Amino acid sequence: MSVEPSLLPCTPAVVPPLDPEFRPLALAYRDFTAAAAACPHPLPVTLALEQPGGTVSRHSLLLFPPNDPRAAANFTLLERVVKTLLWTRGGWRLHLDAPEDLVTRLRNHYEASPAGRFDAETVARRIFDHPLELVATHSPPPERTAPIRIGRHTEGCRIGFDLGGSDRKVAAVVHGEVVFSEETPWNPCVQTDPGYHFEGIMDSLQSAAKRLPRVDAIGGSAAGVYVNNQVKVASLFRSVPPDLFEARVRNLFLEIQQAWGNLPFIVMNDGEVAALAGSMILEQTAVLGLAMGTSTAGGWVNSDGNLTHWLNELAFVPIDLRPDAPRDDWSGDRGVAASYLSQQAIGRLLEPAEIHLPQTLSLPEKLEHVQDLMARGDERARRIYQTIGTYLGYQLAYLAEFYPARHVLLLGRVTTGPGGRVLLAQARHVLETEFPHLANRLSLHLPDERFKRHGQAIAAASLPETTIKPATT
Asked: Are the beta carbons of 82 and 94 closer than 8 angstroms?
């Protein structure tokens, strides 16, 4: 990522207390496109990202015309927007109504740069089974959507599970009422043996099954991308060697389904289930779910109350434009949300907060320590949450360019406890200060503590459809 320093990185009006060099992409996008629109002959660019099933997502923006000296920054902003489209919408063929030189630079980026190759390999090839293809055209295809009507089933005896990077949660649900829930620490991201994952998931399912008279369906929420219950790509299995991934991980959930007698079974991305959970408990639509845990997960329920074919992998959406922004240890890119809206941010902000903990502690252990300090009124911990809340406010403003959300539900370990309320208040302060039109449109929500910790597992239980008739009262 190269940045034209005089134009793109914008100093925020609300400065994160522990990160004064933060330069939010939200401001750069707003100010850059507004300045382009104000010039005599702005350059319109249209992007249309296609998935194998024929769905298409479009996004348009204005850049500076080639004869404007500010056009030197066009590529940097365009690349960040294309990356956002890849990770929010997902697809393999990108149609661009844009100047050929910008298309050529994008091709070079996805072929030659490590971060670009990661995006192309992961999104296009691993998730959608195609190499990334960039097509220069003056006639991009129109938007085509295909809603997914799934979830909200409460009949019968169900198990819901939620697999994160530091814990796995499970709930036993009878006709929509939770009769048991449990949280178990684990550390899947560093495990090379997929037997660890299989045994851990089975242990949680069996624990819930003991509390039910029978099991009619199982629904799962997990970090990663899943298509027809197959694992496409997931940080939970990132340490499994490629040959073992293909042999044991790709069909892991189909194997688990078979172990449970092939009963109705669905596993979906944890962000999608977070959004579904938000829509269910808020009784609202146009809900963006945001889970801030080991990484950053997202999901979207549209204005009709349905899930979509969008990818919603918000961990890799860019947030910070400074050239020396923190580097993500998986994708290799700088300034992406996983380093700002997750436990990773907690670990990164300990030093500037002057909180000194043993390096041997895991991120969940560091988070627990900060939460304990926060509960005791420690100002250093408060500044950590204010900093993350500032990140969140600016990122919600940027995501609003891609999601017509009316509600945002925040979930995950980072939002647990009094720190979550500080984080939420700071995000609202950013919106009110910098983006007042969004502050009036966007409602931010924190569920109660029990739902915050187990809500995704409960919503996951509602995913599969059964032939059982709903309970009557």
From this structure: yes
Q: What is the pLDDT of residues 211-254, one digit of tens each?
A: 999 999 999 989 888 988 999 988 899 999 999 999 999 999 99
Show Cβ contacts of residue 57 under 8 Å, excluding neighbours closer than 6 positions: 48, 49, 85, 89, 91, 143, 310
153-162 pLDDT, tens digit each: 989 999 999 9
Question: Around 129, how many Cα atoms within 13 Å sit in the side-chain half-sphere?
Answer: 7
Phi-psi region of 306 (alpha: psi -120 to 50; beta: other; left: phi over 0): beta
The answer to whether residues 347 and 467 belong to one domain is: yes
Residue-range definition of the domain harbouring residue 76: 39-136
- The reply to whether the predicted model has a pTM over 0.85 is yes
**Domain closes at, from 106, 136, 166:** 136
Residue 343 in domain = yes
Q: Which of 90-99, 286-295, 455-464 has the highest mean pLDDT?
A: 90-99
User: How many domains does the chain divide into?
Assistant: 2
Does 141 reside within a domain?
Answer: no
